[in-house]
Design goal:
Elements (H helix, E strand, L loop, with lengths): L1 H23 L5 H19 L2
Amino acid sequence: MSTTLNIIFTILSLLVFLGITFWAYSRHNKERYEEMGRMPFDQDNETTGN
């Protein structure tokens, strides 16, 4: 019984990991992540006046 639960938990964990990875790298989120990646540089320019 314990071995079966371990297998089920491992498979579910793998599926969740793959789902999160697919979601994070999907094209739908690309623009948002690129904008978030530029935020530190945009804020730096605002504070220094450049």
